[in-house]
Every structure is written in C-alpha cells, then in structure tokens.
Amino acid sequence: MDDLDRPAAALRALPPSCGPVRLVAVDGHAGSGKSTFAGRLAVALGGAPVVHLDDIATHEELFAWTDRLREQVLEPLGRGEVARVHPYDWNLRRFGPPRPVPPAPVVLVEGVGAGRRALRPHLARLLWMERGAEESWARGRHRDGPAQSAFWDGWTAAETAHFAADPSRPFADALVRECAVGYEWLPGPAATAVANQAITESDRLSHPY
Q1: Alpha carbon distance 116, 168 (integer Å)
Q2: Per-residue pLDDT averaged across 152-161, rounded?
Q3: What is the Cα–Cα distance from 141 to 139, expressed in whole angstroms?
Q4: pTM for this model (two decimals)
C-alpha cells in the first residue's frame, strides 16, 4: 500500500524533536531505496527538506561525519535557524557551496547511519528501509556499474563494521518495505517494544505510528 499521505500527516502531528523541527531519519543499507522513498515522502509532506548524508560524508569519512552534521544541520535547526549544508562532490573530492535547509515542520535525513546513536536523541521518528544487505548492495552495484566496483568493496566492509558497532534497525519506529507498487509499512522494533503504541493489526500497512 502506498498511502504516504497518512503517515505524512502522522509525522506532522508529532512533537518537535530538534528545536521547532520534527527530524525524521530514513536509514537502511546502501542500495535499499532510501533516497527514492525519502523523495516521495518529502512530496507527501508538502515539499519537506531532505538532508542527504551523501552530501555530508566523504571518501575518507564514510561514517565519521557526526560532528559535521551536528555543526551544519542539528545546531542551527535546533535554534530555529536555516541550516547550511556544504555538499561533498564525490567526483571532485571537495565540498561545494552551501545549500540552505530551512527549519520546516518536518525535515528528513536520509542515508546509511541516519539512525545512529548520536542522532537518535534529535529524532522525532526513525524509519528503516526493510531490505537485506546483500540484496541492497547488489542493487547499488548494478546502479553504479563496474567502474565503482572497488568503491563498493570498501563500502560494504565499512557499512558492515558501522552497523555492527552502532546498529539502527533495533531502534526503528517503523519498517518500510518497497513493493511492486508503493510501500508496506510495519511497526519497527522500537514501536513493538513499547506498550500502548497506537498500532493495530488492521493498521499495519499504513500506520507505523
């Protein structure tokens, strides 16, 4: 079921988590479909800003970008100010000019590690793309082609190490599974571990909250 209007409305109704902003993370393995899903959810949210972690990470800092995200995004949004991300150019290997991220009611952060330990206190919700690592990586390799094979070899090792040390899925509020048409929403481990969650069997496809 691809009913993004209902979960989008539920996200807008949440209490702010980072200053006036409801910060929502979309995490999952590389190649799992995070960027596409975040784009569609942003549209359902009326044009919500999306922070892509590919703009924050670098070749040398695939996962060591927490301080940069805090300085460029979390701290200004927490003050109700416009954040400014300097997107990393993966071809030129340098940061580009700043791109504004306004303190909208909902701001999405998508990328591998978006639900990491250091970010979770700032999140209103953590969504996890429910696709296995091997399948996700195969999709990513196919998308990027043979020229990126060496990069993917290094990436999969780094991603495996990251999630072993700092897993996101156990803390997800909702699991999002891409279907042939649309998305299936299921309660995540964090939701099912807490009593009195507003989730019933009849709501499982459309109400992760």
Answers
A1: 6
A2: 93
A3: 6
A4: 0.89
Strand, helix or coil for residue 121: helix
Give 5-203's CATH code, choosing from 3.60.20.10, 3.40.50.300, 3.40.50.1950, 3.90.550.10: 3.40.50.300
Whether the Cβ atoms of residue 122 and residue 74 lie closer than 8 Å to each other: yes
In order of 9, 20, 152, the CA distances from 13 in angstroms are 6, 12, 39
Rounded-to-integer distance, Cα 61 and Cα 98, Å = 19
Task: Evaluate whether 107 touches 23 at the Cβ level (below 8 Å).
Answer: yes
In single-letter form, the type of residue at position 52 comes to: H
Q: How far apart are CA 209 and CA 174, in angstroms?
A: 7
**Tokens coding 84:** 């400014």
Number of residues assigned to the chain: 209
